[in-house]
């Protein structure tokens, strides 16, 4: 092939193609590659989009399916809770009605236990629904107190006592409230019967707590419930009996107390005041380079709480056992005549409970708790709140039942002679003088026999737990 | 033309591989985190045969000076930290999966601290961790104490689980943080609360004044403040 150049001759490429033709070919090839790349990207995007969309579609459909399943499951959980709650409340209401006409002690007792059961059921399911609403909270309180009070009265009847006029009046007051609760729930029942669901837009779940708004109204008259048992109002208005009549301290006096109690304490700082059931002045300080915190009661300037982090250095008297160390520390804090009554080991710490002994009687309600770091042997925590709540001058009576008589009431043979103790009853609202016996029978039991009546006052069982050390149930 | 097809094919495959790679990457990353969270760790307070093995190895290599007693105490913590520092691991004093493989042991599913455990302690520790892990220690005990005070109160459910899972009661239940694995501090705080320490002296509520919006809650008299929480 020939082609003419500027010299008039013809340039021929090796393959016999003219040069110009070759350049054009190259350009064409370049364009081809760009075209190929472009097509590749378009294809890839296309394929990617299809794959991506189908994966997304697959997952979203699967998710939607899961979501519907979960929603149905939740719907049934709520429905079950609602209908069980309704059952419980209906039972409470009708049993209360029956109780007003029951005359025999046996019938009254069994009805009271029925109310207790019904309220336990109702409470459990009521808690499934919104708890941050005041109306719901008052409703829960009513259900719990009705249960607690019924249990208390049933116990009274089982001991051979009778219901007093006051007991009857209180029960009378509870009845209209049970009816109110029933009404609130029936309102919801209407919605459900009309096909409304718990979980949907404007569903019953969102409206549930509103049904109890009547319980939150200011003119709603709720009687104060004081009785010896759980959920009594008495527990919420608990005061620090142990500090009554003591002089108030101010910030400066507190600082002096800290200096006196903790020898070598430096950079003592007042870090505020707590106004809880036991008002305290709080201080932080350093001892041997470690930060520690202490709370002193405003009344009397007693150490209510102390805590610090253990250091790497061992305590000088690491060999001394935890119990002795706890007693010595309590003494340093101003709590004398304390005896070790319990100790448990968990998470590298030993928890020692101490109780004061008066006239040979161990006072369990007045516990002081000490926490010791096992590694260093240092006392790293101290709490005397129970002591502050309960410790006072008591007129301790002489037991009317002898130790030998009490022992006869046991079903197990104790491993040692019984010792006299004062134990809290009815969640700490009453106290009873008892003989304490430790018994072993496939586990350790502590049995308490009332030193006045000879009744079995309390049975404790020791649970060994890897995580919590030993604990009493 | 053939070349073009091959190029188009190769590139398409590359894109698809990249795409699925990203997808599967996201999934596998999620499982990995899950495994670490679920896996057994040895930490301060742990006990048992695994702790003994760790102590024996660290002792023979000169890191650990204490006795081989199977109790993960402060000396074990510092020995583990030293070992971690020298081996380019995060020096947190906790034997997790990485440290365990560096020491040359395999952690079983049940270290003694995670083995037979009390559900109450666990639940409380989870609430503390989910609600107050950044708070001072006393503040962590206080959160658990509020749970226990509610159990005793008439206005709330009567079990620890009942109080914690009461609808709307705790944010960490609503946002799922309750399902995180609690650390040793949270467990210790739970133990202290179960043992009767109540820094709040009977409080039933707490809130963060910076973020709280509930008018009723904000109107209640605050009895005390610890860290970011006001207790009432």
List strands and helices in order, with pairings.
The complex is a heterodimer of chains A (473) and B (232).
Chain A: H1 19-101, H2 105-126, H3 134-158, H4 165-193, H5 204-208, H6 233-236, H7 251-261, E1 266-274, E2 280-287, E3 290-297, E4 303-308, H8 322-332, E5 338-346, E6 349-358, E7 361-363, E8 368-373, E9 379-383, H9 385-390, H10 403-408, E10 419-425, E11 430-440, E12 444-450, E13 456-465, E14 469-472
Parallel strand pairs in A: 7-10
Antiparallel strand pairs in A: 1-2, 2-3, 3-4, 4-9, 5-6, 6-7, 6-8, 8-9, 10-11, 11-12, 12-13, 13-14
Helix pairs in contact in A: 1-2, 1-4, 2-3, 3-4
Chain B: H1 2-38, H2 49-60, H3 74-86, H4 97-103, H5 119-132, H6 137-152, H7 160-164, H8 171-174, H9 184-194, E1 206-207, H10 215-219, E2 224-226, E3 229-231
Antiparallel strand pairs in B: 1-3, 2-3
Description:
The complex is a heterodimer of chains A (473) and B (232). Chain A has 473 residues and is of the alpha+beta class. Chain A has helices at residues 19-101, 105-126, 134-158, 165-193, 204-208, 233-236, 251-261, 322-332, 385-390, 403-408, and strands at 266-274, 280-287, 290-297, 303-308, 338-346, 349-358, 361-363, 368-373, 379-383, 419-425, 430-440, 444-450, 456-465, 469-472. Chain A has three domains: 76-236, Up-down Bundle (Four Helix Bundle (Hemerythrin (Met), subunit A)); 249-390, TATA-Binding Protein; 403-472, Nuclear Transport Factor 2, Chain: A (Roll). In chain B, strands 1-3-2 form a three-stranded antiparallel sheet, with helices on one face. With 232 residues, chain B is mainly alpha-helical. The longest helix of chain B is centred in the first third of the chain and has 37 residues, at 2-38. The N and C termini of chain B lie far apart (80 Å). Chain B has helices spanning 2-38, 49-60, 74-86, 97-103, 119-132, 137-152, 160-164, 171-174, 184-194, 215-219, and strands spanning 206-207, 224-226, 229-231. In chain B, strand 2 (224-226) and strand 3 (229-231) form a beta hairpin. Chains A and B meet through helix 1, helix 2, helix 3 and helix 6 of A and helix 1, helix 3, helix 6 and helix 9 of B.
